[in-house]
Amino acid sequence: HIELSLVEMKVTLRYEEAEDKDLHLTLRLTLPKKYQTGETKDVVKMFVDHYNKKFSANPLDAEKLHLKVAGGNHLQPTAVMEDFVASGDDCYVLGGEITAGDAAPPKKTAASPAPAAAPAGKPGRADGKVRCKRFGCQRFYDPDGAPQECVHHTGPPIFHETAKWWSCCPDRKAYDFEEFMKITGCAKGVCSANPEGQESGKRFLGGTDLRAENAPKRLDADAPKEPRHKLADLRQGLESVGVDSALFDQVWGQMAAKNNGDLAAVVDRFRDHLTESLQSLTK
C-alpha cells in the first residue's frame, strides 16, 4: 500500500465575489486527508456550509461555485485537490465560467508510484513541464527545452484590504484578483523554477511564507494608513496638546454613525474642519 498524502495540506480559501465587503470571508485551515484526496467540489461545499452559517441572510449555492488557485488554474468540480493544490496555496471561491487551464497530471493510484515531483514541490505534469516562479509569470515551461521568454515583476505582491499591487509597480493597483493578475510585468527574462532572489521555494502568491526576507512587504511604511489608524494617530496627537480624548471619541463616533460607518469619510471631515480652523487662525 502506498500512502498518497504524507504531508498536511494548509490552504487559504477566499470568497470576495460579493459587492458588500462585509460579506467577504477568508478561511485558513488544514484540510483533512479525505479532502486532500477528494474532489474540489467537496472543499467548496465545506466552505459554503461554513459561510452560510455565518451569513444566513445571504447564502451561497455550492453548485454554482468553483475553486481557482491564486495565479493558477480554475479547477473543475471533479478535479482532485492534491493534483492541483499544494500546502500553502491561496484558493479563491468563484462563480461564473470555469476557464480551461492546463491538463491534470496523471492521477495517483495505490498500484503505481507517484510521478516525480517538480522542482516547486507540486505533483509533476505528464509532459514534464514546470511552472515559472518569477513574480507574475505563472507560465509552464520545459526545463530541458529551449529558454522560454517571460514577462514578470521584479518585486513581490502587496495585498492591503481590497487593493492589490506589485511592489515594483506601486502606481498600478487593482481591486479584483483577476485584474491584479492581468497587470503586465515590468521586466523581461526567461522562465525559471528557481529565479535569483526567490530560492527555497517560498511562495508569495498561492500561499505566502511570512518568514525571512522574501515575505511580502509590510505596509506600515509603503502604503496609506487605514482610516482607523489615521483616527488613532489624530486622537493621540490631540490628546498630547490637551484635547479631551473622550470628547474626540464622542465626536468621531457620531460622525461615523452619520456616515454609515465609513471611517474614510470621517477622516475627510476631520481634515476639512481642522484645515478651516487652522486657516482661520492666520486671518
- Main β-sheet description: 5 strands, mixed
Number of helices: 7
Summed over residues and divided by their number, the pLDDT gives a mean of 76
The helix/strand order is: EEHHEEHEEEEEEHEHHH
The gross shape turns out to be: extended
Spatially, the strands of the biggest sheet line up as 2-1-5-3-4
Strand content: 15-25%
Q: How would you briefly describe this protein structure?
A:
The protein has helices spanning 33-36, 40-54, 81-84, 177-181, 227-240, 245-258, 263-281; strands at residues 9-15, 25-31, 66-69, 74-75, 90-94, 130-131, 140-141, 149-152, 157-160, 163-166, 187-190. With 283 residues, it is an alpha+beta fold.
Give a topology summary:
Blueprint lengths: L8 E7 L9 E7 L1 H4 L3 H15 L11 E4 L4 E2 L5 H4 L5 E5 L35 E2 L8 E2 L7 E4 L4 E4 L2 E4 L10 H5 L5 E4 L36 H14 L4 H14 L4 H19 L2
Parallel strand pairs: 1-5
Antiparallel strand pairs: 1-2, 3-4, 3-5, 6-7, 8-11, 9-10
Q: What can you tell me about this protein's structure?
A:
With 283 residues, the protein is an alpha+beta fold. Helix content is 27%, strand content 16%. It is built from seven helices and eleven strands. The chain has helices spanning 33-36, 40-54, 81-84, 177-181, 227-240, 245-258, 263-281, and strands spanning 9-15, 25-31, 66-69, 74-75, 90-94, 130-131, 140-141, 149-152, 157-160, 163-166, 187-190. A five-stranded mixed beta sheet has the order 2-1-5-3-4. α5 packs antiparallel against α6 (245-258) and α5 runs parallel beside α7. The protein is extended. Residues 1-6, 101-124 and 199-221 have low confidence and may be disordered.
